[in-house]
Fold these 4 entries.
Entry 1:
Amino acid sequence: MSFHILVQQAVNGLVLGSVYGLIAVGYTMVYGIIGMINFAHGDVYMIAAYLTAIFLAALTLLGIQSPPLIILLVLLLTIACTALYGWSVERIAYKPLRHSTRLAPLISAIGMSLILQNYVRLSQGARSQGTPTLIHGSLRLFENGPDQFVQITYAQILIVVTAVIGMALLWYWIQATAMGRACRAVQQDRIMAALLGVDTDRVISVVFVLGASMAAVAGTLVTFNYGSFDFFIGFVIGIKAFTAAVLGGIGSLPGAMLGGLVLGLAESIFSGFVNTDYKDVFAFSLLVLVLIFRPSGLLGHPEVEKV
Amino acid sequence: MGSVLREALLTGLIALLLFAPLTGVSLSGYTLEGHWQRPLWLAGWVVLGRFALGWLLSRRRHVVAHARPHRRPSLLASWIEAHRTFLLLAMFVVALILPWFIGKYWLNVAILAWIYVLLALGLNIVVGLAGLLDLGFVAFYAVGAYGYALGFKYLDLSFWTALPFGALLAACFGVMLGFPVLRMHGDYLAIVTLGFGEIIRLVLNNWMEFTGGPNGVRVPFPSFFGIEFGRKAQPGHVTVHEYFNVPFSNEYRDIFLYLLLMIVVGGLVFVIRRLRRMPLGRNWEALREDEIACRSLGLQPVMVKLSAFGLGAMTGGVGGVFFAASQGFVNPTSFTFMESAHILAIVILGGMGSTAGVIVAAVILTVLPEALRDFAEYRGLLFGCAMVLMMVWRPRGLMGARRARFDRSGVA
């Protein structure tokens, strides 16, 4: 019995961790580029969940019935629209404060987070919304009787596979394209990159767009899998994704994904064997402990501060 | 002019793309309802706003080139400065007289306003003076409130014992959290305090046996040296209407609490003013401006920040005790992140570091939502907009305080 629970929670944790990882890369990229936390990032994910449901309903009304096609179209549409939101967040809350004190853009981002939450609440209502299930069926492993098996749904498999593909594409883009090279240059030294001709404003906007796109992937996948969301889901999952980014090493892309998986697994194991009521307390406490004892995270490197 | 118009139209198009999916339709079960006019209206307003802004900016670009070399301070500012003592005295008298005339409902609003003044002054020490972004300030507020509630429940603490107890308990929580955390960058501090706020709320919500969970805890109303404010007194005590031989009224206890809060706020303002002139206060503000320079001059950043953090937490605890006393009941739903955002909005709008600004903003941002209760659902949206706009246009807030470079009082 314990073995099946452990494996089942591990599977659940990997799926959850993939979602955290997708959102965490947004935090880690923005932090790497401008050295700040994008407090509105969790709410961008929330908007992606709503957009997923809206586009799904719209495409269904238009008569598209094939699940693979509708999933792909919803994913692409949600990414495009959410990317525009990510761009707008940067344009409104960060760009005017590029050379301001450190506190001002942080507070501006918090204000933007409040705006996004309340904007969605006012336009879509405060109650939970849902979507119909598109992906049915599951695999059963280690079956050993009517109550002893490990189940992996096809939706969960889709989440993990899409997350891996998304991360791979992002990694390739960062490592192998000119704009990716510009991003890495700005991350190392923004002023020097500007002096050498890199358009730093454009690079920063692109990073916000990419972060929002990854959050859109997460939002779409979670909505397809769980089918339930409201205007406040971005708050808690945003903190947890940031925990994942810190756990993996803020500023490190592989670290963000690794941090997401570790956090997802830890949280799932805790939920399965200890207490579901306190699993959020566990995640938040993990954040505090990581920042206290290993601020640079698993794959990060301690920052040498120049004065 | 053509470029301004083109820019406005482009902005409107982007706004239309943003607004259309989320405001143009709304989810209804698994299908959609159309609201096609909403995004068009919103985009229209965006075009108008952007055009006006662009026109103003281009016009300002010309005006600045011909700006006069010296600008006189406005007449209003001069008048306020000249009659400062009189104005303060007048406001004090008005605040003193107010509770006897405004009725029970607005009396409760006034009490809540004073509590928010208290909380905002506490957060202003942390955010405004020391420059540390604390997003979980509500946790200390909750610790104070539950300190009183659970102190009464398990230790039979009275209000007067719970007041220092709640304050010290919140301060201990603040120092306990702050000590390991204040070594970090400001961003990490912000999100750790955010997480801490959630931890406190979740523990209060889930620890049924000890805190009552979502059901909350009842709290007694304070007495005053044995004089009580209920209709009937406990054995051996006397009620206020018996003591003064006047008819019973429910408002007496609220008036009492109001006046008590005034005293506490006055004392806190006095302490803050004194602290700002002491080396400790100057250390806070110096750290806010340039931490590296301070460290090179020999300051201990962690201990200086910790003092601001602990003092802010203590003030939050006091606010919590008063909140519990005024409500007669505490419950975890009073201590969500939205409360922290509300208090932070007060500090930002009032002007980080400005005591007077924070007090004015606290009163306005507490009374205004009550006066405009029909627009209550827009409160969060307006707070968010106000925070973004304030940071973009007036980072120091409406009444932002900047310490004068030279103290003029000593110069002829």
Entry 2:
Amino acid sequence: MEKTEGGASVALDRMIQPMLLLLILKKPAHGYELIQNFNAIHEDELVEPGTIYRNLRRMEKDGFVTSKWEAAESGPARRKYDITREGIIALREAAGKLERQKKQIEDFLAEYRNLAVEKGGDRP
Amino acid sequence: MKADPNALKILHAGALRKPIKECIHILWEKYPDLKVELDYAGSRACARAVAEGKIVDVIALADYQVFNDILIPRFVDTSFVFATDQMVLAFDEFSPESNQINEQNWMDVLPGNPAIKYARSDHRLDPCGYRTLILWQLAEQYYGRPGLYRELENGWSNLYPKSLDLAVALMEGKIDYGFEYLSVTKQMNLPYIQFPPQINLSDPRYAGYYARARVVIEGNYPGLETEILGAPIEFAVAIPRNSNQKVLAQEFIDILTGPRGEEVLEANGLIPC
């Protein structure tokens, strides 16, 4: 877990929590809907429903999201999640960390490509 | 036995037996003298009992659709989804072929083998029963095995009123394999085979795919059939309109759906949601 300046934390080693926070920021939603949307974005890496529900509960405990029961017109009531101020801060810091990681990867790839051109052929 | 008018009356799906009892123990921490009357059956049987006049304060079922089909709006206003699960194939270490069977070959091992007794619960009484029929239909499509549904449906040896009875029958050696909820299987420490998410009814991502399968439940009179479409498993709870203990019932539901209830559900193999 990565500590943020405000003491909030978000799991950055995996994208699940930042992705869920981003989806909830776009539109407050039920876990059921979030699973459908999450997996539509990450088609090549299917995340189990239990993992998403557990992360939602963890984020609620950490204060990043709140939930309340909301009844559908013809269906049952489900827990609907909304993002909190703490959640928005955590998401901003997660995005900052990803930016830094992206730059590190880009720098690494640029250096690798330069070296490959310099050395020519099949090295490195 | 005469019912106590002050007791909290809870009627629930058999699959929820253990977590409901554990949540009552949490409620007893606050109300140590509270009398609780607990009754359970297959979810459709539970709902029919309420529709026929049984008075309870909390009703917790294995499928929110049962509320919609039988109880809403006349007996219940809204149901609350609180947990999910998945279908698995449970067995016993002494079941024939138990050291050979796996996720890839179960559909070859079970049907047509007179040495193997496999069972399901009754689709007219219990969602685990119609979910089994839905799983078999989806398996026929998923594995590209025309006729698999009919083969499986023609070959079962026993039919039980609820999923819990299936698990008990497995433990007692009356059957060798049972199509069961993962939660009940874990509660009974039974070995099991998991099915892929495309057919195990666990994943909202496949809701559209699940809905290709359907089961018709015969009614008491012609024309009263109920059609059930495949859907992700969702357990739901409600307070019936004629409850005499609405405040206590709400306290119980707050426990079941709150942090301590979530721990109980998780420990019993369900996924709180």
Entry 3:
Amino acid sequence: MSDWRRRQSRAAVWFLAPAGILLAVFVVWPLARSLWWSFHYADLLAPDGQPWAGGSHYSDLLRDPRFRRAFANTALFAVLVVPLQTTLAFFLALWVNRPEPAWRWLRVVFFLPTIVAMPVLAILWTMLYQPAQGDETGLINAMLGIVGVPAQAWLRDPLLALPAIAFMSIWQGTGLQMMVFLAGLQNVPRETLEAARVDGAGAWQRTRHVVVPAMRNSIVFVVTVTTILAFRLFVQPYLMTRGGPGNSTVSLVQTIYETTFLAQDLGRACAAAFLFLLLVGGLALVQRRLLREERA
Amino acid sequence: MTRVRNRAFSIFVACALALAGCRSAHEDETRLVRVWAHQGQEAENKAMREIAEAFDDAHRAFGVRVELTFFPDFQYAEKLAIAAAARDLPDAFDLDGPMVARLVDAGLLAPLDAWIDEETRGDFLPTILQQGTIEGRLYALGAFESAAVLYYDREKFERADVVAPPDLEGWTWDEFLEACAKLRTAGIEAVALHMDESADEWYTYAFSPVVWSAGGALVSPEGDDVQGVLASEANVRALESWQELFARGFAATDPVDPDPFGSGTVAMDWSGHWMARSHLEKFGDRLGVMPLPRVGPEAAAPCGSWCWGVSATSARTEDAVRWLKWVTHPEHGVAPIVRANGAVPARRSAFASFPEYRENPYALFRRQLETVARPRPRTPFYATLTQRFAAALRDIARGADVRSRLETAEAEVQRVVARRRVRDGGVDGSAEAVP
């Protein structure tokens, strides 16, 4: 190794040090600490010096009906939200991708819900679904009534509550994904599109064979991020239904939150958080494998 | 010139040193007691600050001073937990009554038995002592109490031909339902149950008496088990009766108006002491009050509120107890805070400062607290218990099957209980006993 190279690599260590230290202190150390706690009966009020629990937190969580229900709910939520939201955002982006000012306004309108705080939207949508009780119905039921659909107890029916929350979440999140797709659309080569048009390809064929392949990276990004965000579901069900009726909308993050701050069972909460981490990390890996990003 | 400057400099240094010396000597003399409190209404916070100032004035000779810090109500429990984990609890702090058992369980509260004599104890309402006593030892004392009653509008009763029970006895559940039905027939909405409360605690606080009155309970008498208790026959029967209120349209499951009684749309209000002042102002003599209706033979009422404890790790236990005694003193603590927040005084001798307690509704609050009121379960897993019970009540009000819903809640809470037992017994990690 030349002298110059050696000096460079020595300098590199110094340049990397600040970031490395920050990562170690604020990411690696807390992770290691939680992993340690997840194998102990750590109490939130007295975390250290508690007896060894082995893998019992993990095995108990996997057998806990409420935790399993939370897992199933969260997975179902992701299954509902990820494909629908991505598709919707994609077509919205195609639709509003025009230079005239009127369309720019439309983009703003679609983007607006993503910048409003989720708790505000949760309260608003609770009222839209059901402002009061019994037969008095919200705006959504009133609108459906016009086309002859009978009023539904959206947030009270164990079968409807989670889809209702998923619908509201899609409405809220689509704008952000749309913006990512709009940015991605700038990468679609105009010449190729023109060539396809000259060759007689219709709108659908152009989208399928030119636009989608050119936007592959944006799609991979959006799908991955939407999946991770979907698995972090918490605020909407917590504020709109509190996880009910029954446990039909309880989410994984809600169980972690409750285990930490209500039961104050830090060991079990850390175990639940690690299971959550494994799940989301695993999913992200699988997605990257399947949807492999193209490197420029 | 240089000499002058030098001399000035030496004088300055000498003065600075002297001052520093004075300050450190003074600081050594003043013992600072760190005190945390939850943030209440502004009037309440102001009263607390004044109580603290009065304490400082009265204890200047002893060299004791308090440093009072407020934290928002909704983050307070988390703040205490984090401080406990970081071994940074203050010397004295207030906490919600049902949390006492959990903090004692974690070894964070110091017992007060050695500091509070029998005579002083006898002056506190029995419910305050019960709330603060865990396994026979006293850990917390409050300055004020709470009460829940059934307020009613005499005029609406008259219009619907409903007769209130004699001598504040309270109705049986059937009598209560009958009254609701009569009101309904007369075109008057029957009762407000405030199911809009987003916090879980209202449900447990307000509707535990329904269960208790039927001979039921939320937890075993020792406070360490819910198996066969939470979904007991008595509880199922009590909550099936309670469910009738909603099934027959006597009460709203999702009310929009936070005070339908005050706004004149409802004839009865199932509510707490905190509404007494405004109801009296609005209704005057038209306001009637009675105990909550009972499902079984037993009269029951809720109680419990914020109370004060001393940290087990405090290096200034004696001074922290001085503060606790001050803040629960009938004149220095109870009277000013009760004047600010309108709660029920926690000490018998303090009632002298509140002439309104000779008449209803206030007289009923006191009578209930002296006779039938019970604190919520004193158990380390209360936080889980109240949340699961509240969720069950919410579902039951909206028509869920009472038995199976209570069984689910019971199994969920029991799982937490079983895990604790495994930890304490050091048995292998499997919670096989859990359904």
Entry 4:
Amino acid sequence: MSDTMKHSLLFVFVGVLILLEGATDFLFFSGSWNSALVILNMGLISAIMAIGVNIQWGFAGLFNVGIMGFTALGGLAVVLTSTPVIPEAWSSGGIGILMALVLGALTVVAAVMITRNMPAGKARTLVLLAVMASGFFVYRAIFDPAVGRVEAINPALQGNIGGLDLPVLLAWPAGGLLAAGAAWLIGKTALGLRSDYLAIATLGIAEIIIAVLKNEDWLSRGVKNVVGLPRPLPYEVDLQNDLSFVERAASWGMDPVTASTVYVKAGYAVMFAAVLLVILWMAQMALKSPWGRMMRAIRDNEVAAEAMGKDVTRRHLQIFVLGSAICGIAGAMMTTLDSQLTPGTYNPLRFTFLIWVMVIVGGSGNNFGAVLGGMLIWFFWIKVEPMGILLMEVVTSGMAEGSPLKSHLLESASHMRLFTMGLILLLVLRFSPRGLIPEK
Amino acid sequence: MDLLNALVALTNYVVVPGLAYGSQLALGALGVTLIYGILRFSNFAHGDTMAFGAMVTILFTWWFQAMGLSAGPLPTALLALPFGILGTIGLALFTDRTVYRFYRQQKAKPVIFVMVSLGVMFIMNGIVRFIIGPGDQRFTDGERFVISARTFKELTGLQEGLAIKTTEALTVITAVIVVALLFWFLNKTRTGKSMRAYSDNEDLALLSGINPERVVMYTWMIVAALATIAGVLYGLDKSFKPFTYFQLLLPIFASAIVGGLGNPLGAIAGGFIIAFSEVTITYAWKKVLTYGLPDSLAPDGLVQLLSTDYKFAVSFAILVVVLLFKPTGLFKGKAV
């Protein structure tokens, strides 16, 4: 069997799993088309994130463990792009916040200039400290009262500065841009670090981004969440009230409620698939181009590539920004799908480490592998829980009714998820370290 | 102006919690640093190793409590600790046998080891949640305070009280003993010296007949013991929750890196640097300043540099700043 055949069959396998999820309630399948589409949608988004990570790791060997931060920034972009402007917030404190932020940025720029231009020594340290400290206190003096005024406005619903009131689809590229900007800043400072140090630094920076989203209520409403974000597709209720839609649903033999939910989810699936295909096509083109070959050369032997005159630091920055932007786009899509931004739910197990599992299992260095890994691992992430419960029911079937061990085992079955993910990762790393679809 | 009260407030809210948290971080960071120094990778599973150790200790504690065993004024967990350590050593050696050894023999790149430790992290996390559940577990018993705020006020007649929890005192004392033992072991014993030699220069150590598998085995045993002690002390002082331990990984790494990976002294220094900066930057200084300054200068606001919600972010901000100026940490760590 040729490789192409084998790899296509793997994709067919994932497709069949999702179809079975919709078509049958045998074993752990739920037999609901809604559930199948939910898995498909998040699988598509996961596949995009996996491509982003694969570009950084598989193409260039950059070990970025801060994916969660870029995903969250993408989510923030949805709020900043598509929610309505809140004029009171802008008139009471928005300008002050902006001024304070500009001032803070200027302080950092000044500090960088001082480090660059003054000769090292005591004088430089003192000037640097003085500039940073005074900058910080002036920033807080302007920032704090402005934030207080903004957050006081109708805090049950708003208390933030709102967004630009643009169509929500524009938030997707905006998410990419926001993540790219952050990645550029981070890359400028952190990319000089060696592998493990870089990994921990990105991990930390992602946590800082989440801390900001959780606490700066004026920006993201923090843990109060932003709900009811606009969506690109009609609401189910409107469809159910639409006579022509109800008639069409009846002609397919579906009741209007199910038909409307399936219709909306399928709509998202089409949109996500389109984005995925575009990004996949671009990543494939990039990989095949001279640029892609250069990246792999740098990955395989940095010293040799440098000797050939390649600017390794710049290329690393470039790919770091590109990969992070893709994660930002995926983050924005996810927030659009949920119609809400919930900063409290971002956690590195789900948004960083799971994406890594997808890339490794799929096959790092191969874009199709990343897509396959994203879809497959997401399916298991959702389905391991019912599988675990099923397994435990079989295991405990011989035990006495009501025994404490039996109830404990059944209750704990849902925690099998992390265990299984770890096991899959370890097995793949051991027996198929190049993944299901290896790099060519 | 009242300097004595200011000092007491400072000790109560900054020094004592900082010392306890710093000791916990330092013990955790020592484990991370030892693995990095000898096995040459960042062990992402360390936080969950701590959780596993603490979990085994908690299970034994509950068993002992059910049997009516107690350590008097001290927490029963101290009696259970040796069993927790043994259990964790077993797990660590088993993991090394089944997982890490393969990659050592393959001479895999350090970054592959990091990936593998991710897998181990997932599995350990799953096991802990499977056995004890994801919720909060309290297992502290015995005397709550070495000295409570009220007693202190009665004793000294000061306005401000000073409270020292038993767990805080215990943490610091245990940490001092453990660190002393560790340094004695590394500097004076034959095995310790061979570990240091292996860490400094692998090839030279192999040439002089040091058995690498033995060095690795001892490292895992020491790391498991350190992780369990750190995990139990943290659990006694705060509370035990699997997810919190996973999150602890981050400040622990920050400590190890700020000090310089692979450098035990650096890990301890890093632990205290991170702990004290977290506490001082998020502490509202109003009380201390009101006591310490003349009335005319007393502050109006809370005088807090950052809100306490940013506690977590502080350790990384420090980490990033340190790495910018010293890419391998303050004490010149390794880079593989």
